[in-house]
Design a protein that fits this description.
This protein has 96 residues and is mainly alpha-helical. The protein has 2 helices and no strands. It is 94% helix and 0% strand. Helix 1 packs antiparallel against helix 2. The longest helix is centred in the last third of the chain and has 58 residues, at 38-95.
Length: 96
């Protein structure tokens, strides 16, 4: 496993663990504040799950940007290299 992939997985796991712990603490606090009934619990839990998904999207985006940027740079370099290799090959084919 490459170090880039390993670092990404570690960072992603830390963010997910943080969001899970934060959401559980928030769920406990809100349920204690409003009282524990089945209707309150379901509504609060669904709202907090939605909140956690949105928070995960905002926190994980800075981790994904360098990964996609590196992939785009690699693809650009491959295209440039192939172009440089195709120019002499085309010249040889034309002259032959």
């Amino acid at each position: 496993m490459s170090s880039k992939k390993r670092n990404f997985l570690i960072s992603n796991s830390i963010v997910i663990a943080f969001i899970t712990i934060f959401t559980l603490i928030l769920n406990y606090s809100v349920v204690n504040f409003f009282g524990f009934t089945q209707d309150n619990f379901i509504f609060i839990t669904l709202f907090l799950i939605l909140f956690a998904v949105i928070l995960n999207g905002f926190l994980i985006q800075p981790l994904l940007e360098p990964l996609f940027k590196g992939e785009a740079n690699l693809e650009k370099k491959v295209k440039e290299t192939l172009h440089e290799l195709n120019i002499p090959a085309s010249t040889i084919q034309i002259n032959a």
